[in-house]
Amino acid sequence: MTFTKLSAAAGLTAILALGACTDPASLSTNTDPNQKAKQGALIGGILGAGVGAIANDSNPGLGALAGAAIGAAGGGLIGNSLDKQAAELRQELANDGITITNTGDRLIVSVPNDITFDTDSSTVRPGLRSDLQKVAAHLVRYPQSSVQVIGHTDSDGEAAYNQGLSERRAGAVADILQAGGVTYDRISTLGMGENSPIASNLTPEGKARNRRVEIVVIPRN
């Protein structure tokens, strides 16, 4: 890659980032309903600029601009779709223990193990099945996405046991999603055991947060 290509892509990236940072609306409030869509457009624009500059040997600057426009449009569409999906899921799921996080390029539906499974069990409690069935119905309405089901534990007990338990719990949740109509080819499962905490394992509160199953919804182009 030549220095000109790098400069074009880097320059456009800086402009896009500066524009986002100096948006008056973003400075005055953090409640912009289109925040994730804008983030998606920004990410798409940055990636598109880099690809466009590399692809256009004759005029990397023009290639960067074209790539940025295409990438921003695609990223904005993804961001808008995720905003809509997150809002719908929050309305549909009655359980306050389930959290829905829109990162700008994916949704993470986090289900605490304490409300989903009995201790040392990988059988989903009857009371949570209806919520997981609602998640499945939602995923059926939005087929253009892949779904990762990831099991997590705290650090209590043997690491090898925790790994196996996280795998079984992820599989149990995935089975309910598939039974609800989500096709097999869209779903993958992963057990992380105690290896990916989101809080300290030194407190009961932290351990409770770490015990979870995450349903990660990733849009597919």
Characterise this structure.
This protein has 221 residues and is α+β, with helices and mostly antiparallel strands. It has two domains: 35-75, no CATH class; 78-217, 60s Ribosomal Protein L30, Chain: A (2-Layer Sandwich). The protein is 57% helix and 14% strand. A five-stranded mixed β-sheet has the order 1-2-5-3-4. A hairpin with a 4-residue loop joins strand 1 and strand 2. Helix 1 (3-21) packs antiparallel against helix 3, helix 1 runs parallel beside helix 4 and helix 3 (35-55) runs antiparallel to helix 4. The longest helix has 33 residues, at 60-92. This is OmpA family protein. It holds the Pfam family Gly-zipper_Omp. It is found in: Cell outer membrane. Residues 1-19 form the signal peptide.
User: Gyration radius, to the nearest Å?
Assistant: 21 Å
Low-pLDDT ranges: 2-31, 68-74
Shape: globular
Share in helix = 55-70%
Q: What is the average per-residue confidence, as pLDDT, rounded to a whole number?
A: 79
Task: Determine the structural class based on helices, strands and strand pairing.
Answer: alpha+beta
Major sheet attributes: 5 strands, mixed
String of helices and strands:
HHHHEEHHEHEHE
Q: What is the total number of structural domains?
A: 2
Number of strands: 5
Within CATH, the superfamily of the largest domain carries the name: OmpA-like domain
CATH architecture of the largest domain: 2-Layer Sandwich
- Widest sheet: strand order? 1-2-5-3-4
What CATH calls the topology of the largest domain is: 60s Ribosomal Protein L30, Chain: A
Number of helices: 8
Please state roughly what percent of the residues sit in beta strands, choosing from under 5%, 5-15%, 15-25%, 25-35%, 35-45% or over 45%. 5-15%
- What distance lies between the first and last C-alpha atoms, to the nearest angstrom? 27 Å
Quick one: CATH class of the largest domain? Alpha Beta
